[in-house]
Amino acid sequence: MMKLWLPLLFAVWLSAVCGRDNNQKRPNIIFVLADDYGFNDIGYHGSQIFTPNLDKLASDGVKLENYYVQPICTPTRSQLMSGRYQIHTGLQHAIIWPEQPNGLPLDSPTMADKMKEAGYATHMVGKWHLGFYKDEYLPWNRGFDSYFGYLTGSENYNNHKRTFMDGKWYLDLCDQDGPAHNESGHYSGHLFTEKAIDVVQAHDPSKPLFMYLAYQSVHSPLQVPKPYERKYKHIKDRNRRKYAGMVSVLDEGVGNLTQALKDKGLWDNTILVFSTDNGGQVYEGGNNFPLRGWKASLWEGGFHGVGFVSGGRLPVSGVVNRELIHVSDWFPTLVGLAQGSLNGTKPLDGVDQWDTISQGAPSKRTVLLHNIDPLHPRVGVPLYNDTFDTTVRAAVRVGHMKLITGNPSNGSWVPPPGESQALKFVSDRRTSPGKNVWLFNITADPTEHHDLSDQMPDMVRTLLGYLQRFNETAVPVRYPPYDPRSNPALRGGVWGPWE
Ligand SMILES: *[C@@H]1O[C@H](CO)[C@@H](O)[C@H](O)[C@H]1NC(C)=O
Ligand SMILES: *[C@@H]1O[C@H](CO)[C@@H](O)[C@H](O)[C@H]1NC(C)=O
Ligand SMILES: *[C@@H]1O[C@H](CO)[C@@H](O)[C@H](O)[C@H]1NC(C)=O
Ligand SMILES: *[C@@H]1O[C@H](CO)[C@@H](O)[C@H](O)[C@H]1NC(C)=O
Ligand SMILES: *[C@@H]1O[C@H](CO)[C@@H](O)[C@H](O)[C@H]1NC(C)=O
Ligand SMILES: *[C@@H]1O[C@H](CO)[C@@H](O)[C@H](O)[C@H]1NC(C)=O
Ligand SMILES: *[C@@H]1O[C@H](CO)[C@@H](O)[C@H](O)[C@H]1NC(C)=O
């Protein structure tokens, strides 16, 4: 009797498993990263800039309103691709400069490696900025089947050239087969959108798709085709007007990409994540008001980011999520969504946030190390001798509370230029020049107006203890001097590997 039953049971089990697989086809995952896009530069945050496509996607999905990135480019990208804090990759200090022999360490797989291992087609378009001095660091050797974009951190939007330290300009635009010499005059907001759409159109739908589209928009230099700037004639400030036009290209590009996914029949099975890499640069048209500070600072304006999740595969819509989520969380979250494995990575600092995003479950993250940068110029004297040295630039979030030490950079509140008389610029007045400790309850005071460090000395000591313990796990900083062999003049006038 048993002998007859076993094959039958097996057949029933098989059909159940296959049936589930059909319904639970793994989603396409599209990650769109904007560059230097400020908190006050998206329509749904009350911006003067129009972003109808981004607003629609966000309101159809989940807006992340307690979402954090890092204060500058390489750090955010390194954490996105590795799931690990900078203190664990050696990238604590600054960006990777084009002339530096440096890169995201090869000792742990990237998100793309993991997606590829899970059977995804993996493609990247846009800005890399995670090192390129050796072949091993190039995107197509770090998990991407294909790549089109630029390797350094910023360049001209039209001729795609970037200066070497001698002030001469060299091409930085390539794919895995070599430099792209013929795209001069093709504005990168359009070029990268078209390349991303090419990926979608060429995609074989029998495989799930992972695409990382890292726009140049809206980083400096302020360059934009005239028709986009003309929409903002009413903005008198030149930088803000050009920047607003640049945001409109970005918004239109994401709209076009979404349409291409729909036309290809992929949208219903797609999860799209949109994120900035850091706060807006107020000297280049960006804005983070009412948050304090801007790009490159440890104030909320530096890294309280714009972000949302959308796509036809998202089970919820119209949600505003206020759980603590960090850019390092995407690694386990998205690899988990792809049913990939997290084996072989160095210990991750990110946590899987899918239940938080898709069901509103409480975040598994209560602690967030913003950074510890031992190379940043120190300020003042240490508050205590037996715990973390407060002259060092660092910041940590524990629950509601945020502690900043060292020099967090300019902490003024800067409203968008000329928008309204009601919004006043408020300068960062340091009570003493050597001040190096601030404590805020970010939940109660997200704009950092009320420093609690004098009122809550025990809380300060507790959070210093967190920094102290994080610091014990830090690896040495990788920040090598410029290498003259990086000169693109030595290699046909094109930026690329030199070792
Ligand atoms: C540049 O060359 C590539 C590869 O040959 C081609 O696909 C692309 O369309 C060309 N672009 C322009 C603007 O001609
Ligand atoms: C979006 O598509 C429209 C219609 O094809 C095109 O005119 C526009 O230039 C595209 N925008 C971007 C940013 O690629
Ligand atoms: C992780 O597991 C997969 C599948 O089990 C295997 O193919 C891969 O080699 C493993 N990766 C590492 C880095 O151990
Ligand atoms: C720390 O040590 C220095 C040198 O020993 C001493 O002068 C200073 O008072 C100490 N500071 C505190 C806060 O204990
Ligand atoms: C962090 O740890 C390093 C290595 O143990 C130590 O030299 C340094 O003083 C610590 N930094 C702070 C700010 O406590
Ligand atoms: C901070 O930035 C504001 C705005 O640019 C500027 O007016 C102010 O002088 C700066 N403060 C310091 C201390 O640099
Ligand atoms: C921080 O503010 C929140 C919201 O007002 C409050 O619930 C919480 O108790 C505060 N935490 C501390 C430690 O003061």
Automatic annotation (TrEMBL):
Keyword Metal-binding appears in the UniProt entry: yes
Cofactor dependency: Ca(2+)
UniProt signal peptide: 1-19
InterPro entries documented for this protein: Alkaline_phosphatase_core_sf, ARSB, Sulfatase_CS, Sulfatase_N
Gene3D superfamilies: 3.30.1120.10, Alkaline Phosphatase, subunit A
Keywords: Calcium, Glycoprotein, Hydrolase, Metal-binding, Signal
Organism superkingdom: Eukaryota
UniProt entry tagged with the keyword rRNA-binding: no
Domain Sulfatase N-terminal: 27-338
Family classification: Belongs to the sulfatase family.
PANTHER family in alphabetical order: ARYLSULFATASE, ARYLSULFATASE B
Entry protein name: Arylsulfatase B
Organism of provenance: Aplysia californica (California sea hare)
Lineage: Eukaryota, Metazoa, Spiralia, Lophotrochozoa, Mollusca
